[in-house]
Write a structure and sequence with these properties.
6-stranded parallel beta sheet; binds zinc ion; alpha/beta; 7-stranded mixed beta sheet; globular
Length: 340
């Protein structure tokens, strides 16, 4: 099969790789319908995360089950399935509590690389969710978004306790932040403040339900959020970047008693204990348990209540993955969909 491999920072190649096969009786092999480039793929691509030799890339995937191991019960060949970046048994106490990304049997959900023609998914019963029927082509981008960015934005909104009567601020205008806006809207938030300096992203945020746009960032951004909330700060802030600046911006923009849902992959963030102590805010986040939300998200997509696939503003064939990365790195694209 063909698959994308990162050889060194900035060096993505689509090359011939071994076809994945069933290795454990709980595995499934799926033929991908579409895949995509994640904001978190840019960390190693930019050399901020070390690259130790050629690394198969990609962890967002949807596709049709090709083959299942002898112990797999809930999915079968021919079904269209959505998975996510961690495989989980969905039966342990942690999974049952809704934290499948911390499953006691957790494994990478796309160990053989999701930017490829085929993928082996471990713990298929616990990890994959089948759609009620084969989706029409126009639903595939939205189902692919559910695999990570929608599920992650959704968890950010849930962790921030977005809901009726709440003012929600969103730090970060990448796909996760934009879908955090969509999630906050679906969860019934009264007011949604998107923080973005980019016109095309501001437009999409508004389409997804943002009521206000704040272009300032850092301390100025915090001051603007306070101005918009009677000096109090937002009830709920979704942090969807993962830097020191964005995390502090989120904490400082939250009112005492409010909630920060942090879902940007944390890079060299250290929190000042005393400021945190006196802030009175709740912090909850981490790698999103996308699996918890998949059945609901698939339903909302298949009945066309939400259209998260709009975050894909560039579509390329898998063979042009390198250009897909470059466009995102240069912020010419919000998110690249790769057709397989
Ligand atoms: Zn588990």
């Amino acid at each position: 099969m063909r698959g994308a491999v990162l050889h060194a920072p900035g060096d993505i190649r689509v090359e011939q790789r071994p076809d994945p096969t069933i290795e454990q009786p709980t595995d499934a092999v799926i033929r991908l319908s579409a895949t995509c480039v994640c904001g978190s793929d840019l960390w190693p691509y930019r050399g901020i995360e070390a690259v130790h030799g050629p690394t198969p890339m990609g962890h967002e995937y949807v596709g049709v089950v090709e083959e299942v191991g002898s112990d797999v019960r809930t999915v079968r060949p021919g079904q269209f399935v959505v998975g996510s970046f961690f495989a989980s048994d969905n039966t342990c106490e942690i999974c049952q509590a809704g934290y499948q990304t911390h499953c006691v049997n957790r494994q990478p959900g796309a160990a053989t690389g999701g930017q490829a023609e085929y993928l082996r998914v471990p713990l298929a019963d616990g990890t994959l969710v089948a759609t009620p029927e084969l989706p029409s082509d126009d639903l595939v981008p939205s189902l692919l978004a559910a695999s990570d960015v929608l599920g992650t934005g959704w968890f950010g909104a849930v962790a921030a306790e977005a809901g009726p009567g709440k003012t929600v601020a969103v730090v970060g205008d990448g796909a996760v932040g934009l879908l955090g806006v969509l999630a906050a809207k679906q969860l019934g938030a009264e007011r949604i403040i998107a923080m973005s300096r980019h016109e095309s992203r501001q437009r999409l945020a508004t389409e997804f339900g943002a009521t206000d746009i704040v272009a300032e960032r850092g301390d100025e951004g915090v001051a603007r959020i306070k101005e918009l909330t009677n000096g109090l700060g937002a009830h709920s802030v979704i942090e969807a970047v993962g830097t020191q600046e964005s995390m502090m911006q989120a904490i400082r923009a939250t009112r005492p008693g409010g909630h920060v849902g942090y879902v940007g992959v944390s890079h060299d963030v250290s929190l000042p204990g005393q400021e945190l102590f006196f802030s009175g805010v709740h912090l909850h986040g981490g790698p999103a348990p996308v699996r918890r939300f998949l059945p609901e998200l698939i339903d909302l997509i298949c009945n066309r209540t939400i259209d998260p696939g709009k975050v894909f503003d560039l579509t390329l064939p898998l063979d042009q993955a390198a250009e897909g990365y470059k466009a995102m790195d240069e912020r010419r694209a919000i998110k690249t969909l790769l057709t397989v």
